[in-house]
Amino acid sequence: MQATSAVTSLPAAISAWIARYDPSNLIYQQLPRLEVTDGDHSILLRANTNDYPGNCFAICTVKLAEHAQSKGWFKAFLTYCCTVSPWPTIIIEDVENERLRQFCERLNFSVVSIKYPTSYIVNQDTVLELGVQPLR
């Protein structure tokens, strides 16, 4: 099951997706994944990932149009995720982009597991200390 939408506001779609989560239910919850495109940006989010127990905010795919790359959008997106996630852990899955991998390592993100060495647990305090305005 998945929620897919083409929207003008990624934050609005993410907020609606998070609203489906019931924080009073402490047992693992299976939520549909969220796939959103707003023209220059395309994201895929899930509430779980491989080799991590329980729910988390999993950033599975982020695609940016070439002209939108290296302009700070991902930092703003990640800051937004850190401020709205109902789960204590945010994970970026399968980082293939070398610059993004270096960013994750520079900010002391930890590897999810030996089995998934290119998936990172976000150091949220460090992200928030960057002082980047969240995505709007």
Overview of this protein structure:
Helices cover 26% and strands 27% of the residues. With 136 residues, the protein is α/β, with parallel strands linked by helices. A seven-stranded mixed sheet has the order 1-2-3-4-5-7-6, covered by helices on one side. Strand 1, helix 1 (10-18) and strand 2 form a beta-alpha-beta unit. The longest helix has 12 residues, at 73-84. It is globular. It starts with a strand and ends in a 7-residue tail after the last helix. The model has no long low-confidence stretch (mean pLDDT 89).
List the helices and strands and how they pair.
Elements: E1 2-6, H1 10-18, E2 33-37, E3 41-46, E4 57-64, H2 73-84, E5 90-92, H3 98-106, E6 110-113, E7 116-121, H4 124-129
Parallel strand pairs: 1-2, 4-5
Antiparallel strand pairs: 2-3, 3-4, 5-7, 6-7
Q: Main sheet?
A: 7 strands, mixed
The averaged pLDDT comes out at: 89
Order of helices and strands: EHEEEHEHEEH
Strands in their spatial order, largest beta sheet: 1-2-3-4-5-7-6
Give the overall form: globular
Number of strands: 7
The percent range for helix content is 25-40%
Low-confidence stretches: none
Distance between the termini: 27 Å
Q: What's the assembly state of these chains?
A: single chain
Number of helices: 4
By secondary-structure content and strand pairing, the structural class works out as alpha/beta
